[in-house]
Design a protein that fits this description.
Layout lengths: L1 H14 L1 E9 L4 E7 L2 E4 L3 E8 L5 E4 L3 E5 L6 E8 L4 E8 L1
Antiparallel strand pairs: 1-2, 1-8, 2-3, 3-4, 4-5, 5-6, 6-7, 7-8
Length: about 100
């Protein structure tokens, strides 16, 4: 039974990976994101925990400096909005890798 549980835990942890995408915003910035276990990571460095859904139904991830909002998937693309701590906003598109 313990062996079955260990195999199940390893298998389910490998399925926890949600997605990776390349993003470009209207302020000329390009970056990579990945989402895993309700944490959005930017360029494999900056981590933003899941905060919930917005009124528009977007997913919101934030740390003390940036907030990222991702919209609905349309094929292999989806919209993104980036808000810097002082209120500077940028929007753009992401494409799945």
């Amino acid at each position: 039974m313990k062996l079955f549980f260990c195999i199940y835990a390893l298998f389910s942890s490998s399925l926890a990976y949600a997605y990776q995408a390349n993003c470009t915003t209207n302020d000329g910035r390009s970056f990579n994101i990945s989402v895993r276990d309700k944490v959005l990571t930017v360029d494999n460095k900056y981590h933003h925990p899941y905060q919930g859904r917005t009124d528009k139904g977007w997913y919101e991830y934030a740390n003390s400096k940036y907030t990222y909002k991702t919209g609905s998937f349309k094929g292999d693309e989806f919209p993104i909005e980036v808000i810097k701590g002082r209120g500077k906003r940028a929007s753009g598109q992401c494409r799945f890798r």
